[in-house]
């Protein structure tokens, strides 16, 4: 079977994305602070040069409300990734960019306006990771005591999507005239109010932004619960999933495709990108030693703090060594993620999960030589399905991506699974459809 693998780079605009403490690195090798724009320009150019389709920014609007997150820099501080995009777009010609924005906290008009403006600035290279937020700490920054319940957040997000799509389509294709002879800018009959009035939102419109190259951002989503999958099937163009083994990957792909079809959309057009955190070195021993060194730096309290934030629960209050199923956790954050762990191993404990939460385990086939990791990535797509990998750094990001591009990318190219053509004028939607 001939397969094609696409690569995307996973980041947050923070000191370290998912591999906690990955900001710890020999000082003399650090060229730019993570908060500086040059750090990001180096990452974006590296990804583009290495054939990646996308630089993806996860994001949250809370953090820093517990001691470990500040002490160890656990996704804290987190700056606003939208502010980076114009600079990065000017430094690149092909790379797509995806930003995470929450339907729970952004008003739909503001979000539609910002993303349409960014679609212009990037010449059609912007994507949106639709989230409805997962942590109470975020709610408390917006005058709420806690987040609305899990499924209600998705119900509200459904209505949000209806509003923003109407705004993005509030201009007819031929509304802009720029008629110099008669001094007519646009045809007012071809620009429409949306007059939306729903359960949660009331928006008049039209959107005061010119129709952008893609019309609306390319839409990503990463919910894995039942309700999250239903939402993805209704709205998303690409779903991010966690690769918990080829059987689960296959079931996930099939389930989301079935739901997409039931939602009246083309199931074959839906893309699936799996999170992956490789660590590549000259020899497998070297890679495993390096991996163990990084993992040893991570105290369990730091790992639990990240999980607590994602699951919206204070996990330090629970027995770490009991099967997590017996703890009756009321997870209101990334519910589907916990369900995935339990499906993979019914006896799994919090300590087991903390051991390699969102990062590769010590014996992971993602840790090894470039050839071993390339074989494994090909195997995952061949057996589990999907379209590619969201590559998360396991150490200081500019160097991590530079190393991946120098080692893993050529191995994937040698196997004929990674494209090497250049199409600078493509939109992100066109690029993802290839
Ligand atoms: C790979 C991945 C990346 C995610 N990135 C973010 C993010 O950046 N910000 C956020 O608020 N939620 C993020 N989430 C959470 C999801 O958007 C979703 O809200 C959460 O998983 C709860 O939905 P679920 O119960 O349907 O899984 C991510 C989830 C996954 C699996």
Please tag this protein with its features:
single chain; 434 residues; alpha/beta; TIM Barrel; eight-stranded parallel β-barrel; two-stranded antiparallel sheet; 15 helices; globular; binds flavin mononucleotide
Quick rundown:
The chain is an alpha/beta fold and 434 residues long. Helices cover 39% and strands 14% of the residues. The two termini are 17 Å apart.
Structural features, described:
39% of the residues lie in helices and 14% in strands. By secondary structure, it is α/β, with parallel strands linked by helices. It has a single domain (6-284, 365-433), classed as TIM Barrel, CATH 3.20.20.30. The strands form four sheets. An eight-stranded parallel β-barrel has the order 1-2-3-4-9-10-11-14. The protein has a two-stranded antiparallel sheet with strand order 5-6. The model has no long low-confidence stretch (mean pLDDT 94). The site of flavin mononucleotide has 21 residues, from helix 7, strand 10 and helix 11.
What spatial form do the alpha-carbon principal axes imply?
A: globular
The CATH topology is given as: TIM Barrel
CA-CA gap between termini = 17 Å
Helix/strand order, N-terminal first: EHEHHEHEHHEEEEEHEHEEHHHHEHEHH
| Name given to the CATH architecture | Alpha-Beta Barrel
| CATH level-1 class | Alpha Beta
Computed CA radius of gyration, to the nearest angstrom: 22 Å
Oligomer: single chain
- The total of beta strands comes to 14
Q: Mean pLDDT, rounded to whole units?
A: 94
Tally of individual domains: 1
What binds here, in terms of ligands, is: flavin mononucleotide
The CATH fourth-level homologous superfamily:
Luciferase-like domain
**Strand adjacency order, main sheet:** 1-2-3-4-9-10-11-14
Alpha-beta content class: alpha/beta
Taking the sheet with the most strands, its summary is: 8 strands, parallel, barrel
Instruction: Give the helix tally.
Output: 15
């Amino acid at each position: 079977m001939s397969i094609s693998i696409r690569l995307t780079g996973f980041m947050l605009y923070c000191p370290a994305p998912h591999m906690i403490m990955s900001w710890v690195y020999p000082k003399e090798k650090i060229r730019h602070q993570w908060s500086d724009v040059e750090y990001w320009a180096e990452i974006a150019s590296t990804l583009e040069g290495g054939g990646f389709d996308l630089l993806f920014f996860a994001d949250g609007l809370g953090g820093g409300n517990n001691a470990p997150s500040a002490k160890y820099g656990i996704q804290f501080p987190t700056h606003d990734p939208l502010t980076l995009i114009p600079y990065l777009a000017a430094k690149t010609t092909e790379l797509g960019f995806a930003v995470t924005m929450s339907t729970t906290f952004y008003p739909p008009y503001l979000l539609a306006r910002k993303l349409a403006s960014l679609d212009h600035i990037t010449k059609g290279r912007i994507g949106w990771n639709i989230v409805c937020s997962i942590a109470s700490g975020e709610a408390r920054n917006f005058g709420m005591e806690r987040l609305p319940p899990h499924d209600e957040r998705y119900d509200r997000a459904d209505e949000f999507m209806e509003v923003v799509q109407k705004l993005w389509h509030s201009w007819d294709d031929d509304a802009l005239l720029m008629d110099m002879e008669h001094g007519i800018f646009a045809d007012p009959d071809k620009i429409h109010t949306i007059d939306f009035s729903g359960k949660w939102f009331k928006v008049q419109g039209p959107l005061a932004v010119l129709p952008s190259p893609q019309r609306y951002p390319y839409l990503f989503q990463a919910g894995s619960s039942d309700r999250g999958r239903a939402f993805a099937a209704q709205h998303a163009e690409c779903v991010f999933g966690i690769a918990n083994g080829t059987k689960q990957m296959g079931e996930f792909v099939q389930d989301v495709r079935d739901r997409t079809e039931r939602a009246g959309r083309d199931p074959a057009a839906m893309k699936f990108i799996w999170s992956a955190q490789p660590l590549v070195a000259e020899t497998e021993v070297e890679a495993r030693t390096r991996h163990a060194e990084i993992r040893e730096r991570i105290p369990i309290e730091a790992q639990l703090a990240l999980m607590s934030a994602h699951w919206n629960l204070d996990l330090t209050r629970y027995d770490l060594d009991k099967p997590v199923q017996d703890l009756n956790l009321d997870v209101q954050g990334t519910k589907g993620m916990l369900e995935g762990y339990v499906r993979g191993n019914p006896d799994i404990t919090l300590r087991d999960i903390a051991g390699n939460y969102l990062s590769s385990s010590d014996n992971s086939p993602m840790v090894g030589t470039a050839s071993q990791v390339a074989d494994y990535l090909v195997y995952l797509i061949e057996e589990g399905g999907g379209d590619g990998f969201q590559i998360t750094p396991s150490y200081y990001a500019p160097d991590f991506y530079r190393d991946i591009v120098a080692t893993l990318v050529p191995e994937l190219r040698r196997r004929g699974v990674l494209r090497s053509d250049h199409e600078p004028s493509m939109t992100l939607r066109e690029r993802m459809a290839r």
